[in-house]
Write a structure and sequence with these properties.
This protein is an alpha/beta fold. It is built from 25 helices and 17 strands. The structure holds flavin-adenine dinucleotide and iron/sulfur cluster (2 copies).
Length: 562
């Protein structure tokens, strides 16, 4: 029997071990048992209630405890011993941001680039479109604004592109490929998740074949995100590296359930990363009328160069990235665009910069309007307008945003065509035919740590597991799968071989560069609307260096605590 102070201090020690990444999964059972014993045996109120926080968090946040132990990861960014710096912790790929900032500032561009692509093989592409998870916890925000970590890796990748330095770094990484394991792995879907899994596994010596239903690799980065945000040649150049590493691509092949059954017998592992591409229907009268298109379908048509007859006036429904991309693309095709969104501006899930750019370019946005009915032309076949319910903001709902409430008023917005983009989801029927199980959230069920599905040797990752997320989150899933597959096939923990240590400055900056984040140049407004040329010009050299000097070097914990 434990005395009360002894029991609670033992529980505290267990929590400290978990927070320091020194615990094992057994610690969780021991902590639970200890908590129950203290609770049951204590005579005073303190003992009876003291273990409650431990027991309830073990009950409701078990996965977070497990993440601390199995992944040495603290999602909240609180357990300091588990991460290098807050930015590294919140970047889904855990890029060593202080390292590349420091190397670049010191003029070591090849080393900076090498440290970047070891962790993120699409730095120029992702640096353009990332949701910049790294900025969310950047400590520089306590002073003014976060460091432009992603824009810096974009800059480095942009200026090294096509140079001898780039070639040398890529050759070095190619040379380090481990000897052939003789194991063949199939990847289905060439989006960010599948490509990232392929990138790591080929370097670990496995034979990789990627099957893709479309004619090129990139997934949504190639067929969804418009070229004015992510130019095609940049993405193509970065994906080229996978070909050079020896990944075999088979394009224009839609994988069917029967393929899975036969491949499972012949290959060491199958990785399914086919995304969440099914558009959520509007489910209002008139959605089958001519002139009503899904936002992603429209974006894909633009990406393949197919014309969509939009007419003059276009209404876009939705508040996320797909809606904004569709609206800005329609604008570039000469339409007058009005976007309708059922909540307030601050509730829009789309990236703030994208919303600001859409407005600047001339997209009119109507907030607090919910689509009620699509109005047909006199022939009854074509869209003529959209009937909207006028909403007002009520109390906060479970999403933390104010619930839109119908005021009973309506209005009609005339239009020649309509693009709806109210969300995407996993194609459940298709996935089930593969023999995969769905979660209650209609995403693919997989082990959260290895991403192995209920079928042994079959892994799933990216949007199909998380639900629609961000590109770098999908890449992180690909990385997680690669680590699990390699551990399974080799019986060893070899992932660290892919990340040698870099020698970079470990000095706390006494006078970090003052001032807010550098302002990024953009394409002239008139030129923008004439086509799909890239809008963001990125940082210039002086700005990129300045951003490196703005970093507070939160990775240097010992020095900074002096
Ligand atoms: C319009 C739009 C804009 C976005 N903007 C951003 C942004 O700015 N920043 C950001 O970070 N994220 C953005 N996202 C989200 C991001 O693109 C996704 O989270 C990411 O691409 C998911 O990667 P994935 O590999 O899981 O799937 P996907 O990118 O969807 O790739 C899946 C691949 O699998 C292929 N495939 C599907 N079924 C089969 C089959 N049966 N056989 C063979 N191949 C198959 C598909 O053709 C596709 O190439 C955006 C999404 C959309 C739709
Ligand atoms: S200040 Fe530098 S090290 Fe600290 S979180 Fe921001 S980028 Fe990372
Ligand atoms: S990948 Fe995204 S989150 Fe990670 S460092 Fe780059 S911009 Fe930041």
């Amino acid at each position: 029997m434990h005395s009360l102070p002894e029991g609670l201090s033992q529980a505290l020690k267990m929590l400290q071990d978990i927070a320091a990444g020194k615990a094992s999964l057994d610690t969780l059972n021991q902590a639970r048992e200890l908590g129950m014993v203290i609770k049951d045996s204590a005579l005073c109120g303190l003992g009876q209630t003291g273990p409650n926080p431990l027991l309830t968090t073990l009950n409701y946040f078990l996965q977070e405890y497990e993440e601390h132990i199995r992944d040495k990861y603290c999602d909240a960014g609180v357990c300091q011993e588990l991460f290098l710096a807050p930015c590294e912790n919140s970047c889904p790929l855990h890029m060593n941001i202080p390292a590349y900032l420091s190397l670049f500032e010191a003029g070591k561009i090849s080393a900076a680039f090498e440290s970047i692509i070891r962790e993120n093989f699409l730095p120029a592409s992702i640096g353009r479109i990332c949701h910049f998870h790294c900025k969310l916890r950047c400590r520089r925000e306590d002073i003014d604004t976060p460091v432009a970590q992603g824009e810096v890796h974009r800059y480095i990748a942009d200026i090294i592109r096509g140079t001898k330095k780039e070639e040398k770094v890529r050759k070095q990484i190619t040379k380090e490929k481990l000897p052939s394991s003789g194991k063949s792995v199939i990847v289905i879907g060439a989006g960010p998740a599948g490509l990232t899994a392929a990138y790591y596994l080929i370097r670990l010596g496995h034979k990789i074949t990627v099957y893709e239903q479309s004619s090129q690799a990139g997934g949504i980065l190639r067929w969804g995100i418009p070229a004015y945000r992510l130019p095609r040649d940049i993405l193509k150049h970065e994906i080229e590296f996978l070909h050079k590493l020896g990944v075999k691509f088979i394009f224009n092949k839609k994988v069917l359930p029967a393929d899975i059954i036969s491949w499972k017998k012949k290959h060491a592992a199958l990785i399914i990363a086919t995304g969440a591409y099914k558009e959520i229907p509007l489910a209002i009268p008139g959605e089958n009328l001519k002139g009503v298109f899904s936002g992603s379908h429209f974006l894909k048509s633009v990406a393949v160069g197919k014309k969509t007859a939009l007419g003059r006036k276009v209404v876009v429904i939705g508040g996320g990235n797909v809606a904004i991309d569709a609206a800005r693309s329609a604008l570039r095709l000469g339409a007058e665009v009005t976007l309708v969104y059922r909540r307030q501006e601050e509730d829009m899930p789309a990236n703030r910069m994208e919303i600001a750019d859409a407005k600047l370019e001339g997209v009119k946005i109507l907030f607090m309007r919910s689509p009620k009915e699509i109005v047909a032309s006199s022939s009854g076949k074509k869209v003529k307008g959209l009937k909207l319910s006028v909403m007002q903001a009520g109390f906060c709902d479970s999403s933390g945003r104010k619930k839109p409430l119908d005021t009973g008023k309506t209005e009609v917005l005339p239009c020649d065509s309509m693009l709806f983009a109210i969300g995407e989801r996993v194609d459940g029927e298709f996935v089930k035919k593969f023999g995969l199980e769905l979660t209650p959230y209609k995403t693919v069920k997989a082990d959260p740590f290895t991403l192995e599905t209920g079928i042994k040797g079959v892994y799933a990752g990216g949007d199909m597991v998380t639900g629609p997320g961000t590109a770098v989150q999908a890449m992180a899933q690909g990385k997680r799968i690669a680590e699990a597959v390699d551990r399974n096939l080799s019986g060893k923990d070899r992932f660290k071989l892919l990340y040698p240590d870099f020698d970079y400055d470990k000095v706390v900056p006494l006078n970090p560069e003052p001032g807010t984040k550098s302002k990024i140049g953009t394409l002239n407004l008139k030129v923008r609307l004439k086509g799909f040329s890239e809008v963001s010009k990125g940082l210039i050299l002086a700005q990129a260096k300045r951003e490196c000097r703005r970093c507070l070097r939160c990775d240097l914990k010992e020095e900074s605590s002096i």
